Amino acid sequence: MKKLTANEVRQMFLDFFESKDHTILEPASLVPVDDPTLLWINSGVATIKKYFDGTEEPPNVRLANSQKSIRTNDIENVGYTARHHTLFEMLGNFSIGDYFKEEAIVWAWELLTSKEWYAMDPEKLSVTIYPEDEEAKRIWQDVVGLPKDRIIELEENFWDIGAGPSGPNTEIFYDRGQEYNDLDENHPESFAGGENERWLEIWNIVFSQFNHLPDDTYEPLPNQNIDAGMGLERMIALSQDALTNFETDLFLPIIEKISAISDKVYGKDEVKNTSFRIIADHIRAVTFAVSDGALPSNDGRGYILRRLIRRSVLHGQKLGIREPFLTDLVPVVNEVMGDYYTSLKENEDFVKKIIKREEDRFHETLADGLAILNDLISDLEENNEKTIDGASAFKLYDTYGFPYELTEEFAQERKLAVDEAGFNQEMEAQRERARAARSTEQSMSIQSDVFKDLEEDTEFTGYTETEDTAKIIYMVADGKVQEAIEPGQRGEIVFEQTPFYAEKGGQVGDTGYVYDGSGQVVAEVLDVQSAPGGQNLHIIESVQHLDVKENYCLEIDVQRRELIKRNHTATHLMHQALRDILGEHVHQAGSLVAPDLLRFDFSHLQPVSSEEIAEIEDLVNQKIWDSIPLETIETDIKTAKDMGAQALFGEKYGEEVRVVCISDYSRELCGGTHVSNTSEIGLFKITQETGVGAGVRRIFAQTSQGAFDWLEEQLQILDQSKALLKAQTRQDVPAKIMSQQDQIKKLEAELESLKHQMANEEAESVFEDVQEIEGVRFIASVTNVNDMSQLRDLADQWKQGDFSDILVLGLEDSGKANLLVAMKPLMIEKGLKAGDLIKEISQHIKGGGGGRPDMAQAGGSYPEGLDRAIDAVSEWIQEEI
Known about the structure:
This protein has 5 domains: 6-248, BirA Bifunctional Protein, domain 2 (2-Layer Sandwich), CATH 3.30.930.10; 251-364, no CATH class; 459-556, Elongation Factor Tu (Ef-tu), domain 3; 562-711, 2-Layer Sandwich (Threonyl-tRNA Synthetase, Chain A, domain 2), CATH 3.30.980.10; 755-880, Roll (Diaminopimelate Epimerase, Chain A, domain 1), CATH 3.10.310. By secondary structure, it is α+β, with helices and mostly antiparallel strands. Helices cover 38% and strands 24% of the residues. Strand 34 and strand 35 form a beta hairpin. Helix 11 runs antiparallel to helix 12 (390-400). The termini are far apart. It contains 23 helices and 35 strands. Belongs to the class-II aminoacyl-tRNA synthetase family.
């Protein structure tokens, strides 16, 4: 095999399939767009599955890509094995109803073995197939010429993820030689396709030829597809004759930087080698993910990022690195990967800022966790206990990032054990919660061919027209192509041209009516979406009979469109204002442009302050009042980018694009409809700002009529407040509120004083009732205080004096029972513990609790048992003394 760099392996794959008439797709963001079934893009096909299930038409029926992907289902194996990674690149080639088994197999063999390409030794390659796939077997044997003994039949070679496309697959394995094997040559698993280190799987070709139906049966797909994937990291390891994926030019520069920071040498100690590999793997994943807009948080993909960063820090400590260091690795990752993934270098400063903040935060959290662990160990030693319970070990792991091994290590130093079974039980419970929280939506739809014969394009005339006359070219109703739609029937219609905008780029679709030649309404247009081929698909409810190939008059709801246009242009203005006020890191993360409001999601690390919101509003309104004319430029994508035009989140662009320019202030690629002058917006008002996820904020705003109506509602609320406060004018409302707040503070102070006085009186009464058993003085009483806070105040007063050796107080509060127990040090020395006593007596109130040896409290649902609980105190003391 040729000795190639990582960039050469990737480029050779893409060049090969480009020579086979494949369109090379740009790598997609790791953060899925409009796909609730995925946390991350986890394969090459994940970005194009809409083409496989027929919901969208591809730019070419032959596609190829090199797609960055993240998988964390087996994160515990990363660094410990030769080939597990969190982030990896999948080299993929795909056929959407075009070529099938023979071309896919023959081309794979050509790329791998041809002297012009990878030049692998054909004698080192073996394949696996599905036993019933006679066609694949024939191609490998008769067309490629592979010997029978290197074609292995395996039952598991059938790709199926539930409802949707499925089919048999074939895998290609490279024989690295027995010297790489971790098994004896005669071991049952020592074969291509077995669990061993000798034969390395490099390519998997899935032949999607069936629809897996909801009733668990299969039917042939309308269009057969090819989904083929090759692991870049594995190919590079083979090309560079590396023992593992980590000894390649993808990872070694990162490992060398870690070595320089830690002053440790990679390769000498396998335990330390594992830490080097984990850090190198994780920093790649984190750098890519943050660059693509994911941010650390406590749930979802943000939790995964936080976990990767924390694992890296802990393994850095195993290498002797005590200070934050991960940001020093980001430029190395960008140097290795940045030639192909150019956005890495563009976002380097932002990525370093996020990682630094998270790493600093974890160092603080780690110190907090260590303090808690030390307290936990001290309590165990004080009580002569020898085991840290599983729940506590798990809390340290889950909340403070302590791996189980670290807790175990600290425990062993103090000659303590850890309840590993209990820890594993808590871990499994968390996994169950995670599984239950996962989306139940299917990741790929059942393939439909209802639009396969729709080849004509729709011309959109709505930039300049609000009505038009056009012929119906396609109709669907009841899931089938129709020649006519009857009155009262719902359907989907495509016209040869239309003024109706189809929902995209955040802008909702138009509504309106379809008329016949005499001006009679024949259908109401409820919504407009895009057909798989991009045509405007009118969702209608018919009033009269409609026929395909007939001409009809189309008219949009003009007033609704005008409101939408104002909100859309205001969205562009606000996007730029956010960047001006909050910083250049702000990027759109989703939007909705509707007639009644605009909603805008954007990347930002903290809530937008009221002062910042006021600045944003002022800036947008100033641009509105400046009466700036809008200009729309149609050009190619390169020229648009050179002009500085921003792309909208989740939107796809062809070579020809529209750039909406608001003077030099805002330039965005946008296919939506806009006002001709900013003055048409009238007024802009932000009505709400909130968070929707880690590092993503959401703004709701109104314009024109909506903004006016919203302001009227606020004035009505203010007038209601004025009446309730008995203020003379609206301007007097703040002063009235301040006056009432002052009055409330005085009353609260008086109330607290009275409560304190009552507590003192209660204390005098309670502390006088001292009982004694075997020389142990104790107070046990149900009190008349108001809440647990006052109960604890009594306990604090008791501690300051010498009233008794044991204090037990009860309280009924809001239908619940509460108990508090306190012990003097002399009692603890005798082996009496507050926690033991509270456990014994709390059963009478049908509750439970616990605490320290000197103080414990409990709650229960049966206040009727309080007297019995108090009576049980003397019984417990007698038994314990």
